[in-house]
Amino acid sequence: MSGSRDPTSDEQRRTTSAPAVKANLDRRRFLVGTAAAGIGSVAAGVLHDGELGAPPQTFRGAVPWSEGTADAPPGASGSGYLFFAAAEALFIEAAVARLIPNDEVGPGAVEAGVPFFLDRQLAGRFGQGDHYFLGGPWPKGTPEQGYQSRFNPAQLYRAAIAAIAKYVGASFNGVAFAQLPTEEQDTVLKGLESGEIKLEDGVDSKTFFGMLLQNTKEGYFSDPIYGGNKDMAAWKMIGFPGAHYDYKEWVTRHGERVPFAPVGFKGRPGWTQGGT
Amino acid sequence: MTTTLKPVDAVLVGFGWTGAIMGQQLCDAGLSVVALERGPWRDTATDFATGFAQDELRYMWRHHLFQNVTYDTLTIRNNTNQQALPIRHLGAFLLGTGVGSGGVHWNGQIFRFLPSDFVTRSHNEQRYGKKAVSDYDLTVQDWGVTYDELEPHYDAFDKLCGTSGKAGNLNGKIQPGGNPFEGPRSSEFPTPPMIQTYAPALFGQAAAELGRHPFPNPTGNLSEAYTNPLGAQLGACTYCGFCEKFGCGNYSKASPQTTVLPYLMTKPNFTLKTECEVLRVEMTADRKRATGVTYVNSAGEEFFQPAEIVILSAYVLQNVRLMLLSGIGKPYDPATGEGVVGKNYAYQTMSGVNVFFDDKILNPFIGAGALATVIDDFNGDNFDHSGLGFIGGAYIAGMVTGGRPIEMIYTPEGTPDWGMAWKHAAAKNYLRSFAIVVHGSCMSHRGNYLDLDPTYQDVHGRPMLRMTFDFTENEHKMSRFLTDRAAEVARAMNPREIKVNQRKGSFSVVPYQTTHNTGGAIMGATPKDSVVNKYLQVWDVPNVFSMGSGAFPQNAGYNPTGTVAALTYHAAHEIITRYLKNPGPLVQT
User: Fold this and answer.
1) Chain A contacts of B55, Cβ < 8 Å?
2) Are strands B85-86 and B74-77 parallel, antiparallel or unpaired?
């Protein structure tokens, strides 16, 4: 502590300063701790920047800095699904396998761990609608007005997967999406993308498809700490070196291939025991 | 219950670039200053350390540094026949919050507007006739301040940031290697330009072959280490490619954190309070004077902070909203054209061209927020608009801010957005493609404005701001003409193919365009046509000053921060040298 938080400030006289500061430190320590332990994004009740409820603070006399408070990223961990029920997982795995299929050029979304990434995102803050405004009223908007659903992303996924199952069951004699031939799967996905397939239960097919595709690419290309981009294979495929910090020596080497293997926040395979 | 606090000389509402600059200026003049920031404290070591700053998912796509719209957003419609609906998830523009605000996660492009940009109405009327500025219901006007008046203040901001670049006009003499169209600079850039990577270099060669005048973009990503006049030290940029939407972990990007706070935070007469949101400016009964501000902290406690001077230094959208909520100035009515608060909201008209090579490895991940080779031949009134049917223009830039793969994979015309064909196109083109940016002006229009929404409220129960905005015929014509010019440069680079991304249709909140919102608290020569005078002083309430791009009567074809900062220094200078001695209107009506 640099001692810059003023204990005599008006607010802190009223709220008592020590718990306010401590709560903030605990918040940040918790984030660091969970990133290290790797259970971050599903933990509830953690305050986070931009969210109301972080304690008010008064700063005077110096730039404040507190030891051990880095705002470390909330990585994913564990195995298996926390959010998706078994039938939902079957749809998601089948769908993302069509959005980014596997071949020798590079991994498919399933091979890259995208379903696991989606599960942890939906079980965590993103799923709960963090950084979404979901208050009413909820009239249908124009395309230019963007997302206008009352659902948070977790609710939208759940409702959409169920509505798609209903549509597919009715259209393909009770066969589930995951059991359809890939050509038929692509036809369904295209119908969702264009909005030609109308879903029941308040789900806008285009809105859901857009979110699923965006989240799939996020899982494919984001840092592996979030549970996708397994072995940084998606980065390798395109030639992105990852969270690399300094390219100064390469700035003038026009046209040369940068030979670095990708690196993520946790380093790269071979830097740690077990190579993961 | 509201607790009344000890009076201060000046209160700053919001603490990004303009709050930091004004705070430093007023504290140096001996005033007691309190800054109220509704977001959290942020510092480089804690919040964007190099170990985790380069996180595309968290910062760009999960909005970690942006305003959390769960608690406060705005509503949007394209015209008054529609119902405005809330922006439920940020897209087109990415609003800042917290200490440093957008100054933390900007790209660092430090442009000056052209001298003719400050006299948009009179200049274009004189050159092209009255019709040129009255067509399409445009409501453009002169700023009431000139480039020459702002030049020392632009210079001050360049020296604060250590801006890297090459002057094109030094005291009226055109300099080789710089932008020959720019207004005269009183001194060379503090640090030399950044080194251009392959794609911007190729763009520059092609543009020169076409007879254009390429120059290195002026950047707040520093080419070398620099110590500014406040003693703050910045390091040389490492070209990591994570500026825009990200905080810089390397102290290489000019921000309030890297340029002002190390100095300002040590001043005994400065106090910063975070997680404190100003609800309204309080006024005397005759509404001619502000008495201070009422704010609520994140613990839910309400305070009245009395102040002699109230500086609105929040983002443009919040400044305008606070004026409307506080009853400052007369709200604009688009039906009659009467009133001024909310008038002339404008934006930026963006388009681009993607360029694809087979034989050239461009390494797009070697980038920086402002790393670009730029041509200004078709910006502002740098070219003859006779017969073109529009005013304004754009800079065209071969720009590589980075190669962040979720956002910045470019695929050729006709490629689907998913499936094997998409994956193969991504794998083939990522290293061999880049984007030419067309960064267009946006003129003000009678139907584009800001007011309070009648339906939706924020977490405090206050009406949200309502934005009514669409691009007009002037902007569509300008953008088509400029995008064609960009495509010419793209073709001259001899690529395998290009993809022209024209700006089409109505303004949409979905795709990211740029966080350059302007107007609504516009400046001008008289109280009839503006909210603030040339010193950003509110005509109707002379102890309230409104900072930021809200003062722009229309938006030029440049990034706004340089001009926002220059206007802030200009206002501070006048407050310190004249207002403090004789508080009252700085411009007589």
Assistant:
1) 73, 222-223, 243, 265
2) antiparallel
A101–B419 C-beta distance less than 8 A = yes
pLDDT for residue A243: 87
CB atoms within 10 A of CB B170: 14
Q: Cα-Cα-Cα-Cα dihedral of B561, B562, B567, B568, to 10°? A: 70
Give the mean pLDDT of chain B.
97
**Tokens coding B404:** 């962040």
Torsion of CA B246, B90, A69, A127, to 10 degrees: -130
Tell me the CATH number for domain B2-579.
3.50.50.60
Mapped to the 3 state alphabet, what secondary structure does B482-510 carry? Answer: HHHHHHHHHHHCCCCEEEEECCCCCCCCC
The secondary structure of A66-126 as a DSSP string is -TT---------SSS-SS--HHHHHHHHHHHHHHS--BTTB--TTTTTHHHHHHHHHHSTT
- DSSP letter for B196, please: P
Going by C-alpha positions, the residue among A152, A271, A254, A147 that lies closest to residue A210 is A147
Burial of residue B336 (number of CB atoms within 10 Å: 0-12, 13-18, 19+): exposed
Cis check for the bond before A137: say yes or no (omega within 30 of 0). Answer: yes
pLDDT in tens, B9-22: 999 999 999 999 99
Phi-psi region of B65 (alpha: psi -120 to 50; beta: other; left: phi over 0): alpha
Across the interface, of B236, B298, B406, the residue whose CB is closest to A52 is B298
Q: What percent of chain B has pLDDT over 90?
A: 98
**CB neighbour list of residue A267: distance below 8 Å, 6 or more residues apart:** none
CA distance B101 to B95: 8
Residue written as token pair 């006299």:
B119
Give the distance, in angstroms, between the CA of residue B461 and the centroid of all CA atoms in the same chain.
28
- Angle among Cα A122, A127, A129 to the nearest 5 degrees reads 170
Is 90 exceeded by the pLDDT of residue B357? yes
- Given a cut of 70, is residue A28 above it in pLDDT? no
Terminal alpha carbon distance of chain B = 40
Report residue A41: phi and psi, to 5°. Answer: -75, -15
**Residues B272, A58 contacting (CB under 8 angstroms):** yes
pLDDT band at A273 (very low <50, low <70, confident <90, very high): low
Average pLDDT score over residue span B293-304: 95
pLDDT at B341: 98
For the record, the structure tokens of A50 come out as 């931009």
Tell me what the mean pLDDT of segment B258-279 comes to: 97
Q: Is the ipTM beyond the 0.95 threshold?
A: yes
DSSP string spanning B271-310? EEEESEEEEEEEE-TTSSSEEEEEEEETTS-EEEEEEEEE
Cross-chain residue pair A241–B98, CB shorter than 8 Å: no
What are the tokens at B322?
A: 């606070």
| Cα–Cα dist B251/B238, whole Å | 10
Are the beta carbons of A38 and A76 closer than 8 angstroms? yes
Locate the DSSP E strands across B110-219: 169-170, 173-174, 215-216
Does the CB of A182 have a partner CB in chain B at under 8 Å? no
Does A248 contact B at CB distance below 8 Å? yes
Burial tier of A187 (Cβ tally within 10 Å: 0-12, 13-18, 19+):
middle
Domain ranges of chain A: 1-75, 86-234
Rounded to an integer, the average pLDDT of B469-486 is: 98
Number of neighbours of residue B227 by Cβ within 10 angstroms? 11
Assigned token pair, B194:
């950044």
Which residues, in sequence order, are CB contacts of B226 under 8 Å at separation 6+? B162, B190, B191, B233, B234
Mutation target for B interface from A1, A52, A98, A256: give the one with most B CBs within 10 A: A52
The helix or strand, by DSSP H or E, that contains position B149, with its residue range, turns out to be: helix B147-161
Would you call A59 and B41 a contact, using CB atoms and an 8 Å cutoff? yes
